[in-house]
Amino acid sequence: MRDLHNQIHTLAELKASGWKSETVKQELRRNLIHKIRNKEELFPGIIGYDKTVIPQVQHAILSHHDLILLGLRGQAKTRIIRGLVDFLDEFMPIVAGSEINDDPYKPLSKYARDLIAEKGDETPISWVHRSERYGEKLATPDTTVADLIGDIDPIKAAANRLSLADESVINFGLIPRTNRGLFVINELPDLQPRIQVALLNIMQERDIQIRGFNIRIPIDVFMAFSANPEDYTSRGNIITPLKDRIDAQVITHYPKALETAIQITQQEAWHNREDDIVVQFPAIYREIIERTAFAARESEYVDQKSGVSTRMTITAMEQVISSAERRAIINNENKTTVRISDLFHMVPALTGKLELVYEGEQEGALKVAKHIIGKAINQTFKNHFPDPQSKDEQQKKTYKAITDWFADGNEVNLPDVVPCTEYQKELAAIPSLAKLVDEFGDASNKFETFAWMDLVLESLHQNSMLSKQDLDEQNVYSDMLGSMFSHFTGFGEGPENFDA
């Protein structure tokens, strides 16, 4: 019956085809069962929910339940709900010209009833694609009952010289126009309580009432909602009678495993620029970006009730790539590799998406962002290299040759835009650094080897073993003790402290 939409154009032909009418929830259930049996991917692009959220959504559909996805921002709630459209039949027959997708066997609107009464089996049939059976409304304070349910249209009545008591003057809202389909309300708590009341009949009695008409119009619709748990206290709430009528509440979550988070960002971020500049992104640096999100979700400076969206790491990766890309353009290079300095250029992606516990001057957000990036770098480093802070003397000696070289007065300057050859020359001058990376690192080529070397220097700084001056586009690493003494220049009893 797959090609019926190309063959059937009248009610008589529809009856002869053997097509049967069913509710939208029956249809969703039937198609879900078919997909499960055929081992089809149910929610393409949704990663990390295979054992938690996805099974619960399946249970709701199998139970004919309306549902709400409850979770913090950036947890793919809307994407999951929109994916439910794929569980509908590809095409559905309606009475041609119907505003509310009238079932040819069970017409609801006055228009459809009158047309069938007039033409009988010759009533024209049209077919609606499943993409047209989806309706969505973002709950905003100005949303009205008329928007969702409908109202009397006095202009229509005047134009057609109809009485206001005539059903033909009804202007149907978004929900009845999605009859026999899916309707979604995002950020449900933002909907005013008196508007939420208007949904009660739809959720339980499965009908709507239009103001001014003493009739109930049965509506067949699968209702889904999304909400942020913080919204219950900060902006509004879901009224108790409505919560009671929503059959299934599914809790979403952020990626629990680092590998899952990396996979999500890799899938969503714009990293294949398809230009003449190739930006290599070492796997270790992808790990650092994801650990930034994990660190932010544990940070005492970040408001955890607000959440740390997965969109943060996606935009962070894109900005890191752009930083490397910009450097390559400046130096007229067609190939470059992401460096530590590029990671700190993802700060704008963090400051715009982190809600701080204590709101203050903008520098506060910048400091928190850099602190979180530094923490992520350090955690990643310690997963691959010996801990510089270990009490084990043997582990401490791992970095002695490097720190001794800096203690002899040597410095390394790695400006943001230094060309690749100079960047490699600076790092190669440090004794034992390349050997250390060969022993503990996991570089896949020469370019990545230098990125790992860069990581070691920054991590030693994060562990207070090297000093770092970060001014303008200069990143100068030097001896920690020597740097401390240089800060005291000009103090004490020397002649430089006295006026001439």
Question: Can you characterise this structure?
Answer:
The structure is a single chain. The model is unreliable at 487-500 (pLDDT under 50). A hairpin with a 6-residue loop joins strand 8 (207-209) and strand 9. This protein has 2 domains: 4-251, Rossmann fold (3-Layer(aba) Sandwich), CATH 3.40.50; 258-485, no CATH class. Helices cover 43% and strands 14% of the residues. The protein is elongated, with a radius of gyration of 31 Å. The protein starts with a helix and ends in a 13-residue tail after the last helix. The chain is of the alpha/beta class. A 5-stranded parallel beta sheet has the order 4-7-10-1-11.
E-strand count:
16
Radius of gyration: 31 Å
Poorly predicted runs of 5 or more residues: 487-500
- Specify the CATH architecture of the largest domain: 3-Layer(aba) Sandwich
Reported by name, the CATH topology of the largest domain is Rossmann fold
Q: What's the helical proportion of residues?
A: 40-55%
First-to-last CA distance: 100 Å
**If you average the pLDDT, what whole number results?**
89
Total number of domains: 2
Major β-sheet strand ordering: 4-7-10-1-11
Which outline best applies?
Answer: elongated
Residue share in β-strands: 5-15%
Q: Give the helix/strand class.
A: alpha/beta
Figure out the total of helices.
25
CATH class of the largest domain: Alpha Beta
Tell me about the biggest sheet? 5 strands, parallel
Please name the fourth-level CATH homologous superfamily of the largest domain: P-loop containing nucleotide triphosphate hydrolases
